[in-house]
Amino acid sequence: MRLRSSLLVLTVVAVLGTTGCGPDCDDLKKEAKELKDTYAACSSGDACVVVDMYSLAGANNCLAAFQCSAALREGSDLDAFGSRARAIASDFEDCSECTMAGCVDPSQLHAECNGSTGRCELVP
């Protein structure tokens, strides 16, 4: 069984009204996913590592892309990833929605590059 994102996601949406001058929340979610996808990109033979996304993006972030553990390409600049992830998560704080993930125990997983998809993945 392949675990894609290895999480069960419960999305809680609170509607607070919109003013038209806040952040574009859909763009921020897309940017978060694209950032994670960029760092998960790999080629056959590349090594991947299990990374705690909460430690990189902030424990109280509300973005699905930045929750739980993920598989990223070994040798990636995790400081740069974390800096950008924290900035996106900070901007997303002004949005009126929050994803809460039920994370799988990362000690039961390892990261490997799937050459056919070109992505690092978490596998049991």
Question: Can you give keywords for this protein?
Answer:
two-stranded antiparallel ribbon, globular, two-stranded antiparallel sheet, 124 residues, alpha+beta
Commentary on this structure:
- There is one protein chain.
- This protein has 124 residues and is an alpha+beta fold.
- It has one domain (7-11, 25-123).
- It is 29% helix and 27% strand.
- The chain is built from 3 helices and 6 strands.
- The strands form 3 sheets. A two-stranded antiparallel ribbon has the order 1-4.
- A hairpin with a 4-residue loop joins β5 (110-114) and β6.
- α1 (25-40) runs antiparallel to α3.
- The longest helix is centred in the N-terminal third of the chain and has 16 residues, at 25-40.
- It is globular and about 40 Å long.
- The model is unreliable at 1-20 (pLDDT under 50).
Give me the secondary-structure topology.
Blueprint: E1 7-13, H1 25-40, E2 48-52, H2 53-57, E3 69-73, H3 78-92, E4 97-103, E5 110-114, E6 119-123
Antiparallel strand pairs: 1-4, 2-3, 5-6
Brief write-up:
With 124 residues, the chain is an alpha+beta fold. It is built from three helices and six strands; from the N terminus they run βαβαβαβββ.
